[in-house]
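Batch 3, record 17
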Amino acid sequence: MQRYVVIGNGVAAVGCIEGLRSVDGATPITVVSAEKHPVYCRPLISYYLEGKTDRDKMQYRPGDFYQKMGCEVLYGVSAVRIDPLAKTVALNNGDSLSYSALCVATGSSPFLPPIAGLDSVRQKCTFMTLDDALALEKAVNPASQVLIVGAGLIGLKCAEGLLARVGSITVCDLADRVLSSILDNDCAAVVQKHLEDHRIRFMLSDSVERFEGDKAYMKSGATVDFDVLVAAVGVRANAALAKDAGIAVNRGILVNNQMQTSVSDVYAAGDCAEGEDVSCGEKRVLAIMPNAYMQGRCAGINMAGGSEAFNKGMPMNSIGFFGLHVMTAGTYYSPEAGGDVYEETAAGMRKKLFSRGGFLTGFVFVGKTERVGIYTSLIRERIPLNTINYELLKKAVSLAPFSDDYRRERLGGVV
Amino acid sequence: MKRIFVNEKWCLGCRLCEYYCAFANSGEINMVKALKDKPIYPRLRVEDDGGVTYAVSCRHCTDPLCVRSCIAAALSVDAGVVTIDRDRCVSCYTCILVCPYGALAHDDAGVVRKCELCLNNAIGQPACVAGCPNRAIVYEER
Amino acid sequence: MRIEYVYPEFEVVRNEARCIQCRVCERQCANEVHSFDPDTGLMLSDESKCVNCQRCVALCPTRALKIVKSDCALRENANWPQGLIKEIYKQANSGGVLLSSMGNPNPLPVYWDKILINASQVTNPSIDPLREPMETRVFLGKKPAKVERDEGDGLKCTLAPQLTLAMPVMFSAMSYGSISYNAHESLARAADALGIYYNTGEGGLHEDFYRYGQNTIVQVASGRFGVHKDYLAAGAAIEIKMGQGAKPGIGGHLPGAKIVGDISRTRMISEGTDAISPAPHHDIYSIEDLRQLVYSLKEATEYKKPIIVKVAAVHNIAAIAGGIARSGADIIAIDGFRGGTGAAPTRIRDNVGIPIEPALAAVDQRLREEGIRNQTSLVVGGSIRSAADVVKAIALGADACYIATAALLALGCHLCRSCHTGKCNWGIATQRPDLVKRLNPDIGSERLIRLMTAWKHEIMELMGGMGINSIESLRGNRLMLRGVNLNEKELEILGISHAGE
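Prediction for the assembled complex:
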């Protein structure tokens, strides 16, 4: 029987479903959803806590989405095994689904650090899903003292979301700076200062050695009393299911630009997949929502017999904390690695453009982020810098530094 | 669908389009009342490199990166027109991060605003086109 | 500081309650009248630079601006009008010849306004042009004196070359240089669409416009700028410019500063050199000399194109026209003294030449009397302002009219009469690229087409009213005209009766 199966019900799954339906309107689609919710905007959970959105507005697609797309959704069900030879997926409810094409969109899971005494912590959670957010909402009160382990994107967005609801927030991280995966010390300091101005306390270059109930003993010797613990150390691709089925897996499920895995008729997309990063030409897990959708869509189109390639993914983040915005993208090559860096610094503002081999490969903007997408397009489209007036573009963002032909074609044609 | 096209050959850099845009989206029926002594937030901008000028607004891309990237599903395509549900926007600015034209921006409240071809305001057709004295911006089927 | 004596002619009146400080006025004024003062947040104006071209007024989105004539006035003096006094001051400041642009603004007689058109009542029915066919097409060129038959008794149909006009109006000569590339393109495209002609003027023909050649009249003037074989071959007719209504008796001068790029190439002179058109053609001192040039040009174009000789309306114009007709010219163009110019010495423009109406009547009358009216067509220009002027000119004896000022008005000209400054805010009489682009030929040509279409409708209405269904039947039909407020001599020259007669 012809049937598309999508394991997972996140944004990549929606991309896949919409990709499938853009080619094939008839073949049934079955979605295996471990979460009991229809697809929602996962990154909005911090905004939910902050009160900037509500559960209704968090819906990623209208209520009749699955019905209109001709999808059967199995809520609260997980896939336990893929048999690529029989082309079946075994489910944890004992059922088995046969597929003609399969998309693994299992996402990623928060990584829980093995810290002594973690079991003794009374209220602890991760910050990844709507259920996490709902649990956290219940757990906190205006007097809560929250300890967040991890000063990465998730930890800091969680801090922002919780701040108005709690008494105090302390964020600790082994790294010597906040957002260490995307910012250098200089930029991180700007963000840290801004967050500290908003009553968030940091303990950097420090980590929890052990918990004793609601008390954390730090490596530095300090102690932190808390009543709610949020573990935001990092996430890992949910690739075990694929790995067990003999599908090639590195940090994530390896996919080519058609989102095909090493096994025929099995595709992967989203946080669980490891596809090409255009900014460096290597494969990377790109656990961000835009890539999830676009990879999913690409997978769907190809699963249904269409032809689509997605080779323009790259790490990128647009993230704001209390009005301070940070945008980053791509790969930062240091001068030692043959990179060239252009920097601008002003109060509360940073700008760093990284180029190598005649191409822009990455950037960091802190504070001033208007029209940054123009720089992103240079990385995504691999526009040779010698075809534009890069000296001009470095200093001020506009389309003027682009070639006249490029500009006329883009602004005066259908794109 | 009909789209806005810009021909920089005829752009005078007068910036009237910006003002007509801001007026069209102000909800006011009088331009003076709408714009006098206020900062304006047009949904297109005129770029000027000292010689060449041209208006930049949403291209309503056939494969819009902003829509694909929006983390709040606030951006969507409605009959080819990329529209924004400002109630859903959480000001994450991922759209600003991905738009190759820098066509999206936010207003003073931080909410993203963008060209919707004036289809969702009282004017009903692009005010920038109607207000351009030299047909540097046209709205047509191609 | 030297006292200038010449005070601002206009006042910029800004309604602060309406101004939204969008600064469009500032960006659009090449004369730099408007500026924004960041300290007060207000727009400022320097009236002394204002030429009242109304560009700012037209573009102001809130109608916050108006330009008014300053009421700061000198003491009244009927013998010394204010304009004259200011000219004295200007010359005392500059020591130079006063320059002016466009047509004569002085209240000189406009005979068109003293001539009225007939309409049919009762005995000869008027014609409704919406119901009946109406012919506005005219052919310009030599017509045979009599019907001739060949041996087989068939008609001899070989005609001299003719221009075919869908309506009796053409765009008269304005050179590339005096007006912009986009103005030329607008005129060329409109002429093409309308089935009429435009005229290159003495600046040559830009290579881009050769494709409009069949609707182009190429001009050969005293400077011979841009004249070569391909140029002559490109046009539908060739016009020898002997004179211009706005400045009879003098030549032209396009300053070297304007001879750049395309203009230098088109004129075939080096960049930066002044383009001086001599007052006379140095090879023409007699009708015989003119005949040589006429036939040289015919020879060069294999007798396939009609030759036009254009002269300014001056004293003895009838005798001059008779000579031109005998020189072999196919068409005579006469330019009246109210005609426009890109630049002319004020004294010449305002004092030399005669109005087109008596000139036309005298020429038509003389050519008829001499029995040579059929040998040339007559085209008149020099302030044809409306369809009514066209109809009156045809009835006075013209075959067609030349218009230029009206065409420029259609393109956006506001008759500020500052062409000679080269800073035309409407993109017409300028070569500054940022100003030239203000005239989009898509818009310009459409506006010209609409204007001419409107005139054509009006011409048909006026003809229909007279019971005339073909422009040929109107030509020289002076019975259709009556004069008002004209003395007997004027009526005699115009060859029309007074109203009531």
